């Protein structure tokens, strides 16, 4: 699922961050401080890659908002975003494999219920 995320302007409570991301594909970022120099393009590219690897895409407005943040705020906001994305993807859940000894222990009749349409 590819979702474009974009910044929001009002400050939600921390418990609302995931709901904003899940329901509105929106991300809260604090107001940008004046940067003495632009953020490294490599840092933004790294954030793009990590977010894209999880099935999300930063909207140009959000990327620009991240670029306007000071380094400490950028790191905190990116960390919060990645934490929220991973939580939505199930990183905090216990995953139980369907076949405990995969690939060696797959029953021979696993595909018997599948009907072909020819």
Structural notes for this entry:
With 118 residues, the protein is an alpha/beta fold. It has a domain at 3-29 and 38-88. It is 40% helix and 10% strand. It has 4 helices and 3 strands; from the N terminus they run βαβαβαα. The chain has helices spanning 17-24, 41-53, 60-67, 71-88, and strands at residues 3-8, 26-28, 56-58. Strands 2-1-3 form a 3-stranded parallel β-sheet.
Keywords:
118 residues, alpha/beta, three-stranded parallel β-sheet, 3 strands
The helix count comes to 4
Strand content: 5-15%
Computed CA radius of gyration, to the nearest angstrom = 20 Å
- Which ranges are low-confidence, i.e. pLDDT below 50, for 5 or more consecutive residues? none
Mean pLDDT: 75
Overall shape: elongated
* Strand adjacency order, main sheet: 2-1-3
**Helical content (DSSP H or I, runs of 4+):** 25-40%
Distance from N terminus to C terminus (CA atoms, Å) equals: 30 Å
User: Helices and strands, in N-to-C order?
Assistant: EHEHEHH
Largest sheet: 3 strands, parallel
**Would you count the extended β strands for me?**
3
Classify the secondary structure makeup into a structural class. alpha/beta
């Amino acid at each position: 699922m590819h979702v474009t995320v974009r910044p929001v302007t009002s400050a939600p409570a921390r418990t609302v961050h995931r709901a904003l991301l899940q329901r509105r594909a929106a991300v809260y970022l604090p107001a940008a401080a004046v940067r003495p120099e632009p953020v490294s393009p490599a840092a933004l590219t790294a954030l793009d890659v990590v977010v894209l690897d999880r099935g999300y895409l930063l909207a140009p407005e959000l990327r620009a908002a991240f670029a306007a943040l000071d380094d400490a705020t950028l790191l905190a906001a990116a960390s919060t975003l990645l934490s929220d994305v991973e939580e939505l993807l199930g990183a905090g859940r216990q995953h139980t494999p369907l076949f405990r000894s995969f690939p060696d222990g797959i029953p021979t009749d696993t595909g018997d219920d599948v009907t072909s349409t020819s």
